[in-house]
Structures are given as C-alpha cells and as structure tokens.
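Here is one chain, start to finish.
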Amino acid sequence: MTAAAQTSTAAAEAGTGGILLWVVLPYLSLAVFVLGHVWRYRYDKFGWTTRSSQLYENRLLRIGSPLFHFGILVVLIGHVIGLLLPESWTAAAGVSETTYHVTAVTLGTVAGVCTLGGLAVLIYRRRTVGPVFSATTRNDKAMYVSLTATIALGLAATVDANIAGGGYNYRETVSPWFRSVFAVQPDPHLMSGAPLLYQLHAVSAMLLFAAWPFTRLVHMLTAPVGYLTRPYIVYRSRDTRLGARAPRRGWERIG
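Its structure:
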C-alpha cells in the first residue's frame, strides 16, 4: 500500500473530528507559527521583546524566573527526545524501555512541577505588584492562560497515566503521529486512540504555538549574538574644560 493510500485509510478510520484535530490543526498551527514570526519580525521588530519588568520588582522574579526557565528547558528537551527519537533508536543505544520510562517520568514530573510553580510565582507577581500589573496587556493575560493550561495538562497526563495509573507508552501512539505530521504522511488514527489528557495537551500545545508569534513568547527565539561583535560605546564630553575648573553658581551660557 502506498503512503497516500495509508494516509487516506487512516483518515477514514479517524473520522471528520480526527481529521480536523490531528491533520488540519497541526499544519494550520505550524503555518501560523512560521508565517506569524516572519510578519512579526518584519513589521514589529522593535516589539520583539519581553518588556522586562525587573526594575519594578526583583525579589519574586529571582524565585519564579529561574524555576520557570530551567524547568521549561528540561521539559522541552524531554519532548524533543520523546517525540522525535523512535523507540528503536534508544534501544539500539542500550537504553531499555524500563530505564527510559522511569527516567522520563521522574525528570518530566519534577521539571513540570518546577515549571508550573515558577509560572505561578510569576503570575502572582504580575497580579500583586502594581507597576507590573499596569504593564500587563490583555494579550499577556491570554498568553498566561494558554501557557498554564498547556503545562498543567501535560503534567496531569504524565501523573494520571504513569503514576496514578498503570502506565502508558506514548512512544507507540503520540510520537509516531508527531513524526508522521512532519513526514507529510499524517496518521490521525494514532492520536484517536490516545488517552484524553494526552489529546487535550496536544490540542492546547498546537493552539499555543499558533498564538506564539503574537505574544511576548517570541523572545525565546532570539539570542544576543550581536553583543559578541558589537563595539564598545564610548561617551565623551564636548566640553574640553570639564573637570578643569569648579562649576559656577547660577546659569551659564552654552556655546
């Protein structure tokens, strides 16, 4: 059977809802993510920033920011390994499925808790510190809701399936579906059989990525590479006599 025939068969088994969620939505989200960043960089280059609020409050920021950023970094690395690397690859590297599963669940749960905890501190800071709250836009509020929902659903799926439940191997369903999307041979039937929390997590993540280019999250795709080659800025006074005499009282004529 050809790849096109396999995709057609899988789509027929998944139904209309499955096609919309696991075929149409992924490509729509990916297109908006890429084109949205191109548009944002072209027409809002000076708005490509987090709008730092460190000057307003620093104590809570020093707690919440490292927790969130280091936690989300581990979460992203875990997703890259779990979604992109087939199970056969880790087995060929000598990592058994049991070892991989225990390590992934342990690190994923700890990282998820740290990420959610850090995000809770940052949201609390943004809500309770007056100047920070005044600088918060509706766009920021919607972004925080979407980000929190995605992280919470991912953590809930891990805990429900692998700690409270009997375990679930997402590398047999979610991961092959994810790779099939990028191979342009989407298999919606794989996701249709996944647990509900995994489905909700995937949908919320796709919606978050679609909104990503239009929020402050764009700063995650930037790096201060220019600072490595930028020359020093030297400030010099035009008054050659500055410092050579005591300042006079009252007004002095300029020029």
